[in-house]
Amino acid sequence: MGKNIVIIGGGIIGLSCAYYLLKEGHTITVIDMSDxxxxxxxxxxxxLTPSHxxxxxxxxxxxxxxxxxxxxxxxFYMKPRLDPDFLRWAxxxxxxxxxxxxxxxxxxxxxxxxxxxDLYTDMHDSGEIGDFQLVKKGLLMLYKTKKEGDHEKExxxxxxxxxxxxxxxxxxxxxxxxxxxSPDILGAVHYECDAHTSxxxxxxxxxxxxxxxxxxxKLGEEVTRFTKNxxxxxxxxxxxxxxxPDEVVLACGSWSQQLGxxxxxxxxxxxxxxxxxNVPRPIGIELPAIxxxxxxxxxxxxxxxxxxxxxxxxxxxxIIRTERVRAIAKAAGNYYTNVHIQEEEIARAQCGLRPVTxxxxxxxxxxxxxxxxxxxxGHAMMGWSLGPATGKLVSEIISNKKLSMSIDGFxxxxxx
Length: 416
Hints:
By secondary structure, the protein is an alpha/beta fold. It has one domain: FAD/NAD(P)-binding domain (3-Layer(bba) Sandwich). The protein has 12 helices and 21 strands. The chain has helices at 12-23, 40-43, 61-67, 84-96, 99-126, 146-161, 171-177, 199-212, 256-262, 322-335, 343-347, 383-398, and strands at residues 4-8, 27-32, 47-48, 76-78, 134-135, 139-143, 166-169, 187-191, 195-197, 216-219, 223-228, 233-238, 242-243, 247-250, 270-279, 289-291, 296-301, 304-313, 350-356, 363-366, 373-377. The strands form 4 sheets. Strands 4, 6, 7, 8, 15, 16, 17, 18 and 19 form a 9-stranded mixed sheet that branches. Strand 17 (296-301) and strand 18 (304-313) form a beta hairpin.
């Protein structure tokens, strides 16, 4: 028998949950405080990344954050502030940045990424939401220094041992795949296991499909209050209306910590701001790439090329820091000889907030306090890649079905 389900959050995670819950015969209402036309689900690099097996919380990351703390154009920027939530998060992030944690996280990240890539493929091949860009040409990791090259080759070795398709490229082979590269690029690692998409296209088509299939969207509504009864959420109240769901899915990204607190649940999350520049003219970029020293992602999308990057931990805000956008534009010119990002393209840059947990792994699952709440948030830079897998797992939890994979490592109340 179908349940009445309220999903709080209309990004790729929330919409993926709606998509798979709908298939199980449930009645779905999606609540979002925005008009669902912007945010992290629209400005990301569009990658499907089984190759990204190393979590953000890894050895050396906190040291880099401290080193770059007073350089607001650095790839990983933590704004200094005396905020208790941020300080507690930073302490736990540092505690999680160990080799032992990385080793434990690697198979989890690989498995959920492969599951999600398969689900994107199923969605594409079914034609259910309409045709969309899904290109399986892999991802280049371009490096200029031996240090970055050696680091990525070690990751590639681990990825290969896990059965992922990966090749180390010489400069000569690289030039045959991607022309117009800067002469100081030494080589690349090519993760053939990866793929890419155009996020805006999928988000638009997925919303249209869900609306036509009976999913109710409540836009411009902010959840203000919950009432509970006998270890269950009884009502969800917004600034406009009140709802009485059988089940609630919390999938509101960087805002999940505040709503979790209103439910008596502690969810350690910091908003990690990322920026993107779209270049809507032919510039000859054939393959997606990460510019390793600059930590910038490059994606040839449908009708434009996207340059995206940075991890800025400065709280929940959508302030565009021009110096960070310019750092992305500068990196583009430093890696491609034929690319010069224009001022008007820089001026149209947008940002999005990615929810980052202290250990770099998402929160997916039930909590001990409430029997009808499922958490689906905290995906950091893998949110786009992991959308369908998360949605599928949430639908299996709520429908009491066998899970597609173990989610013990993603428990919302795990210790750091």
